[in-house]
Amino acid sequence: MSVDTSFPSLRDRSPEMTGAEIAQSLVPPRQFDGATLESYRPDPDYPSQSEAVERVRAFVASWGPRQGGLFSRRRRGAETRPGIYLDGGFGVGKTHLLAALWSLAPGRKYFGTFIEYTALVGALGYQNTVKTLSGASLIAIDEFELDDPGDTMMMSRLLGELAAGGTRIAATSNTPPNALGEGRFAAADFLREISALADRFEIVRIDGLDYRRREVEGNAVILDDAGVDAGLQSIDGDVASDDFAGLLKHLSSVHPSRYVKMVDGLRGIGIRDVRTLTDQSDALRFVAFVDRLYDAQVRIFSTGTPLDQVFGDDMLAGGYRKKYLRAISRLVALTAGRD
Ligand SMILES: Nc1ncnc2c1ncn2[C@@H]1O[C@H](COP(=O)(O)OP(=O)(O)OP(=O)(O)O)[C@@H](O)[C@H]1O
Ligand SMILES: [Mg+2]
Fold first, then answer.
1. What residue owns the CA closest to ligand 1's atom 23?
2. Where is this region: Disordered (predicted)?
3. Exposed/middle/buried for 188, CB within 10 Å: 0-12, 13-18, 19+?
């Protein structure tokens, strides 16, 4: 077997991020640059999708341009709550709609995953985070996590303070453990956990099929070593290549909030000798890594076990089933040759 030395390794990327850098990175991932309410194509089989677009539109309209004097705003915005929560299964376009909403918000605004906001608080401290974010028109939180009660409470308090200052909040659901069946209970869990804020949120439920699977059918593409080399060489931009075991080890040494910087600027990665994961911590870190690859639209070229089989049957039967299924959907999309 030839040892590849021609591509850089992700293991040489162990980034630190300052609070200021994290705050600067709080914009939608590049792949959602073009996401608008108009480019969201509601599936006619799932009426909740077109309804979701309308409700996001209404949420945005209450910021609308001031017309007809001082008191018109009050009339227009009377029905709108300060928060909106998009709840649904994976791939139904929650992040797309959140990014579209963010781009319509006036003035200073932020967009990040729950993990990124907790990393910001970790880097700046709570009070400085409040100072940094306050006065924004909108805080968009993609994939609100309920896994860690401490983080959830902290975020709930932070959002409460910001909302009191007039900032509006938009969030999407993550995939809580054990929520089989497309996250049917996510909205209830969310409301319970943010109980102090619950009545400020409008819940928008989005049903449907994984949009990525509408176009990307089938399995993750699997290659041999030469295929990985050829794939990486075909990429216009920075690439990296690693063996799967080494990559997992590296992921365990970098905080998941920094994976975003680890993959920054990459256009493609090679992963050699993929094998089915047996350790749950490895698997969850790999999921977080895949999320960042997906956000940055980094193409994946791999050898060994097809990446859609990287989570064993035991794992898929367990509490994090939805997270793993979503990661598979993303892996299939990233290994498919498209542009
Ligand atoms: N109805 C739709 N019309 C057009 N594009 C869509 C639609 N639904 C999803 N997409 C696109 O499909 C991809 C996946 O959607 P998105 O990431 O927004 O889904 P999601 O609900 O956030 O999924 P996940 O649970 O994985 O976070 C994105 O590129 C998005 O722009
Ligand atoms: Mg999403």
1. 91
2. 1-25
3. exposed
Relative to the alpha carbon of 31, which ligand is closest? 1
In terms of domains, do 195 and 272 share one? Answer: no
Confidence (pTM):
0.78
What's the gap between Cα 129 and its chain centre? Answer: 21
Residue type, 177: P
CA 308 to chain centre: 19
For residue 89, which atom of ligand 1 is closest to its CA? 25
Neighbours of ion ligand 2 (CB under 5 A): 94-95
Regarding the beta carbon of 95 and ligand 1, being less than 6 Å apart is answered: yes
Closest by CA to 82, choosing from 131, 37, 137, is 137
Distance from Cα 293 to the centre of ligand 1, integer Å = 15
Residue 93 burial (C-beta neighbours within 10 Å; 0-12, 13-18, 19+): buried
Helix, strand or coil, per DSSP, at residue 240: strand
* Averages of pLDDT over each 10 residues, the chain, 339 residues: 70 84 89 94 95 96 61 50 89 95 96 91 93 96 84 92 95 66 65 84 88 63 92 94 97 89 94 95 95 94 94 85 87 77
- C-beta of 92 in contact with ligand 1 (< 6 A): yes
Cβ–ligand 1 contact at 211 (below 6 Å): yes
Query: Whose alpha carbon is nearest atom 1 of ligand 1?
Result: 41
Ligand 1 test: best mutation among 31, 92, 292, 331, most atoms within 8 Å of CB? Answer: 92
Give the DSSP letter of residue 101: H
Q: Are residues 183 and 329 in the same domain?
A: no
Residue nearest (by alpha carbon) to ligand 1 atom 5: 40
Protein residue closest via CA to atom 11 of ligand 1: 93
In sequence order, the 6+-apart residues with CB closer than 8 A to the CB of 190 are 85, 87, 144, 146, 171, 173, 201
Site of tokens 């509601």: 42
Total number of domains in the chain? 2
Find the domain containing 91 and state its range: 19-62+79-206
Task: Tell me which DSSP letter residue 63 carries.
Answer: T
From 206, 241, 276, the end of a domain falls on 206
